[in-house]
Structures
1.
Amino acid sequence: MNSRLDDKDMHKKDNNLSAAEYVLGILDADERARFQQALQDDAAVRDEVVYWEDQLAEVGLKLSPVTPPDTIWQQIQMQTGIRGTADEVPKETGGAGATRAWRLWAVAASLVAVSALSLLVVTQRENTADSTVVASVTAGEATIGQAAAQDDSFNPFEEALVWSSPKLGPKLGANSNATYISPDFVGKIQDYASSIGWKVAGYNALGAMEVSAAGKPYTQLWERATLELWLLPINSYEEPISLGLLPENGARRIPIPAHVASEFYTDYNKLAVSVEPPGGSLTGEPTGDILFITTLSRGTHPNP
Amino acid sequence: MNQSEQLVEWLKASAAGDERAFKKLYQVTSPHLFALLLRILRTQESAEDALQDVYVKIWQKAKTYELKRGSPISWLMSIARYRALDLLRRRDPETSMPDDPEMVAIILSDTESAGPQVNSETMQSLSKVNRCMQCLTPDQRRSLMLAYYEGLTHQEMSDRMELPLGTVKSLVRRGLISLRDCLAEDE
């Protein structure tokens, strides 16, 4: 009888020790697999794990707390769909947040497109309207695949914004003989999930691009946030150039910076959108999360 | 309502989709989880990424929390630590940070202080664990610290401590037995 009790007690102590080692993460693969099976089968084993998690968590709490950067909460908001408020727009600029944002864009640029919210970003390849690359990035892992038909799925607000056509695009000249001009570059920034997006048309003759909001105002997703547009170089070691704030509604004409006008499209062919404090980044670099990156294409608008 | 009860309330509210409660939960607990992630993962970038993953998971799994899963803060810390270990085990050894022989000393000195967000209730618990840790031999304590704070495996501890693998396994087991016995006496 005593021997049976001793065996039971020993078994309990073994389970307790294995639970501690499991919580510490030091069981090897085979031991862990066996223990996980026991976890499923035996409530007492689960209690042992909870016991050690409680005890060892207290050891972890002895570390001095470190407040994480504001950008982390923003990332969590985007991934969970939690709405933001004014006080959640990053107050700090520069520092670790900026570094991270910059790093994010550099990685994203090499992957063609990035989204921290499983947003889809469509990038149109040069002169291939039906060849679309869709990239979805979640939890640091990227998958890129061909999705020729995806462009059509942008239609929830396609009709709200017509491509800059000769009849709707800007005029060159001021009198009745003025001619409508064609865009030299076009781009599309979009979020399928929330039907928020912008279309971009660049005009060399004007030295400017027109950015037109489509779909819902972005503030429905990021309340009182400010979204800033950036021109990205092909070489990711070059710094991005701010193009100003994105319009919430309607269109905005944005001058192409003179010092990159001659290299526009050849050396600077991508646009990015970042979340910034009210009024835009104070550092000249993206400081918040990079929401979208899109590659510009040669303008191919229809003939009149 | 004590701190633990408050965390339970916020978890319950988060499970019901209360975003303000989740934000409060994040504001109060994230500095502790972030400190742990920084300690284990050792780089700001990895710790930030992990923290983000952890709170997304907490938001999604809040409804699975129940008191028999332990205290709310230990539940949260465990989610963070398991995530860190997962990342650590997948990390390419060639890109890992080099071993820092001073790390244990830093950990031990750091753990002497408690931040402003740890209240007296938690401090009481910490004292108990701390007291029991002092009952261990230096090597036993060091092996447990290396496992907990740095996520080292037995083999990695063996390399770090320059002791045979069997000796390290024995150190850890004996350390855990002593710790468990001490905690049981104190209850």
Note: Residues 94-118 of chain B have pLDDT under 50 and may be disordered.
2.
Amino acid sequence: MHSKEGCELNKALLEVKNLKKYFKVPQGMLHAVDDVSFTIQQGRTLGIVGESGCGKTTTGRALLRLIAPTGGSILFDGKDIMKLSSAQMRRQRQDMQLIFQDPFSSLNPRKTIAQTIEEPIRLARLISNSDERFMRVLDLMDTVGLAERLINTYPHELDGGRRQRIGIARALAMNPKFIVCDEPVSALDVSIQAQILNLMKKIQRDKGITYIFITHDLSVVNHFSDDIAVMYLGRLIEKASADDLFRKPLHPYTQALLSAIPVPRIHNRPERILLRGELTSPINPEPVCRFVNRCNYATEQCRKTEPALIEVEPGHFVACYLVHAEHRAGEAAP
Amino acid sequence: MEEKRTAASGNLLEIENLVIQYVSNDEITHAVNGIDLQIPVGKTLGLVGETGAGKTTTALSILNLVPAPQGRILSGTVKVEGNDVLRMNEKQLQAFRGNSVAMIFQDPMTALNPIKTVGDQIAEGIAVHKNLNKAAAFEEAMSMLELVGIPSGRAREYPHQFSGGMKQRVVIAIALACNPLLLIADEPTTALDVTIQAQVLKLINELRVKYQMSMLMITHDLGIVAEVCDAVAIMYAGKIVEYGTLEDIFDHFSHPYTKGLFDSLPNIEDRRAELKPIKGLIPDPTNLPGGCSFHPRCNYCTPECTQGEPFVRQLSETHVVRCNLYRDAGRNAL
């Protein structure tokens, strides 16, 4: 859609198939991520949205094998990274980085900006000459908009926006192809949030980086992503381009979620679909639709078996019997 | 109860020239720097600003709860129904807090006592203010729970047995138990998911209308303001920089900072619209810039703005802006 480096367009950088992460808890098995599959093209951004406990953060970490997935396969640049040894995986992660949510707790308070950004370069033995390493740190600080005079300051001397810039510089230090951004702007004020989002977009344009952007903020994800995946209780329930998802959300949960966004305007306010109740437990879930207890349209079928994620329109996937039935009816019609 | 609702001026809350500082060993934090605010009976005022703007300090002053000794109220009056809260003695305050003015705090996870049942926590205020015995107060607490949509049978459960949204409902029940004249809601839904936020906002709105309460809604989210407020005060560095009705602020915003806030937000209708962040950072409240506090970040700054208090212009009966752009201009100069 946007003109990114032409030759690499449409090349899948990441292919995730049937990713699962279960946690053993006293009451049974907690299905944090349950059979999630998706593909991301190089240079694009996939937004993952959902509410607390839907498994979006666990998905991000499992992709980098920061927590060991229970099952599934992850192809990165054509390579199955589930098969890598931990030493190989460590090298692999030079290409796969993470930006954390909370810039207040994700930085070492005893390290200066320079030390923090330099650390991964040093550990990976990317640049052995310390002067060159220092130049690289300055270069990275410039990229993320940190003034050179801050080089010897500590995290506590800086505000949230600058701290998040350090987190970004650190993630960029390895020249990664792919970055998982886990709620990178949630802790920031709106005026600073906009600065950081613009910075991340610029970096993507300049370097062709692929992002996964995990957030609960729907207006931010709409602005930032090319494609959006909606998760509910460990399941991916809808995936489409950002345009399609916001123009025509198909899953009843997505519809309610989008309608709940508080829109900052006073005219033509959208009608709100209020959901009953709250998330059900992700522990030992029944093999039925996980949204069934809150859904206004649930039928017998939804209580019996679990709907699969099916492509109902080009590039638009949804896991809902209701939508599947409509889709089939639409195909049968002339 | 009826006579509780009437105030001579039509304003339930009147804050005048309020100045509050926090003094530590060698620093003075200028938290609130001379603000005036009114809330008419039965109306909701949104107090909007970013971290450190002084919103919560303003709210605490209405309950005379600014933490002493470091917090110092240097001047001003805070009148609820014509009575100056800042000049009440401890005994008067006890009768006043929770009864005339109640507060909902941001984080329901920490606002509740973990070792008391939710029923007991709601009953506590009822017993004190309505002079009821324990059993009668508990009875009333159970009906409060029903009112906020929690089955009364759960009154004997502890906070950890409730989800975040349910806890916030309990906090609302505590605040409303004594039928206050003014409800202060300090970011009441920031810690909640968006579908739960929609439920809680709807609940607050319904109860406010039902009990003809006035409300001070503190938030950084202009979407929430559009949804629940009648009037809006935009706060920056301890000052109200713009004040008006919803239409004044959303359709005719006039202060460069207010414009900056709107420009920083992603546009849900047009996801490709560029974010225009406010440049720079929020000033350090221990070292505020001279003149207009916003001038270092302002695109309209003139030499005049760096010295002396900015001009205050009454743009209409309801709309006030504090900005030198309006020294000569009577209408929107942006």
Note: DSSP finds ten helices and twelve strands in chain B.
3.
Amino acid sequence: MPITKKDVLHVADLARLALTDTEIDLYTGQLQRILSYVEKLSELDTKGIEPTTYTVPLMTVFREDETRPSLPREEALGNAPEEEKGCFKVPKIIE
Amino acid sequence: MKYEAVIGLEVHAQLLTGSKLFCGCSTKFGSEPNTQVCPVCLGMPGVLPVLNRKAVEFAVKMALAVGCRINPRSVFARKNYFYPDLPKGYQISQYSEPLAEHGHLDIDVDNTTKKIGITRVHMEEDAGKLLHGEGPEDANYSFVDLNRTGVPLIEIVSEPDMRTSDEAQAYLKALRDILVYLEICSGNMEEGSFRCDANVSIRPIGAEKLGTKAELKNMNSFKFVKEAIDYEIQRQIDVVDGGGKVVQETRLFDSARGVTASMRSKEEAHDYRYFPEPDLLPLIVEDRLVDKLRNEMPELPRAKRERFAGEYGIPEYDAGVLTASRALADYYEATVKATGEPKVSSNWVMGEVLRLLKEGSGDVKDCPVSPQSLAGLIKAVKDGVVSGKTAKEVFEEMYRTSQPAEEIIKAKGLVQISNEDELARIIDDIIKANPDNLERYRAGKTQLLGFFVGEAMKATKGKANPQVINKLLKEKLG
């Protein structure tokens, strides 16, 4: 399946990335080459084989429902570009 | 043209675990913003989620309660989208392999029972809370509190089997009752512990094909769910009758104006690119666990209601009121056990007990009068120790002081006078004092019996046994 400019723009939009025209061309080519490489797998006959989502032979690991101390708030907000009222401050979401 | 509505509901219920779904942060409601967060729920690099056992058990219980088949193997998936309430950039949910599928729920509307299909019950984590700036200084900002991020949810998705807002409301109430009975969700809609989105479309009556649906959000009470759906059905009919087309969109209910309005959000791309969560192993629910949870299942609201009506011979209305919560049903049953009087006990619990409880928390767990105490009072009435009317006063006193009925009756001298000799003397005095009325009564004005009863009550400060008084008066006046 060829990757088009449109695909790249769509993915960039979902990832909130603003790309320049040069970058769009660059990534279209790179993504195309990556996909063609992986495409090689389609040559294998996988009829009757369960999809392998997990490769480790392990199942469910649980923890008990016990609370543990959370981070101090200053630390939780430590990386935030902006904070106010103990909250992360972000550009307004709803128009 | 005549239309019918097609309604399906997606319900999110917060599970009453102490800690979050994938980390040990507390799930307590109402704490200071961002005080219940850690590297896992903040989505810091290099952390790993570890599944809360209790959350899985709660989810399985609900799935069993609505007759779902539990999938022995289910898979968590990442639902990818960018929104500030979601620090990881994805929500851990379940997608193509959910925890449970193919259930149903019976609802009662207009005296008929209808089966509503339940497509699936799956587990997911909650997102954070956004506060939108309103003042002039912060009008351009939103504020993010991530305390709720990672709190365990189950999503219960119905089939599009409902046709009216009443059915939707009945379905929601039935779901909530079950969750509360199972003690796995508080069911509090105002706090957002129980949330509902509605998919609503219309089609000409008789048509098979589904119309384009709108998804309604922001309905935080049963009343609002009904209002929003009714409004939306009429809106879509107006659109189609006016030659327009319904567009697929998310609409928010505005409870102040009673309307739904298109949500204009910056997040419009519904391209979630689900894929299996690589940080979590498949969830295996063994038959052994399912059997264990099935055995622990309490009697559910509907079964209890039917049993109360059948076993105790009380009206269905009573059974409905008395089974509104498990605690109230237990209270009633304990009272019946102690009195052997199902209907009288029902009248007391539905009447005086609930009346006084409503002045306080409304929770029967806070009732200062135990079922055994109440039974003592009911017995006192039955034995003729106090009149029914006095008993209500005694009950209020019991409620206030937590003292047993017998003590209050004794201390306040409320014992009913049933002694015929004593009452006969009182009646004789009354008759003697009212010769005119006696004559008029004998001349046929029998309504005057009430006058004599009233006088006897007055003379005994309401303590005379009304049956005895009536009997004696009829003898003596006649």
Note: Residues 3-290 of chain B form one domain.
